[in-house]
Design a protein that fits this description.
The protein is mainly α. The protein is 74% helix and 0% strand.
Length: 126
């Protein structure tokens, strides 16, 4: 939730500041190849999603929208557990994470998101 708060208030303030904006570095991969990396636009996508602009968030980076959704769901889950007083159920979460944490599966998912990013870059140019 801290990350969403930062994305909602702090990062737009940095972009609006003439003194702080030069501190934001461009992507090295994009500078070298002119093709966006899977993470290009991720911060802007999280900011847009936290402000409710979901279509713009997806256009900027599908990974940013997925990260924002995961953060919101995790926050809701933690709040539900805290209010109900039940156990966290981490054993089931660990089993699921172990199945998902296979390198090939993670790499395939990242490649799919990158292809989506490149497709949106070709269509919208961002």
């Amino acid at each position: 939730m801290l990350g969403l708060t930062l994305a909602r208030f702090v990062i737009p303030a940095i972009w609006a500041s003439d003194r702080l904006a030069p501190l934001l570095r461009p992507c090295v991969f994009r500078s070298a190849t002119s093709i966006p990396c899977p993470f290009c636009g991720g911060t802007r996508a999280v900011v847009a999603a936290s402000q409710g602009r979901l279509a713009e968030s997806f256009r900027l980076s599908p990974l940013g929208l997925a990260a924002t959704s995961a953060a919101v769901l995790a926050g809701l889950w933690c709040a539900t557990v805290a209010l109900s007083g039940r156990r966290l159920g981490l054993e089931a979460a660990v089993r699921i994470a172990r199945r998902l944490a296979r390198p090939r599966l993670l790499l395939a998912g990242l490649m799919l998101l990158w292809l989506l990013k490149v497709a949106t870059w070709l269509v919208w140019g961002t």
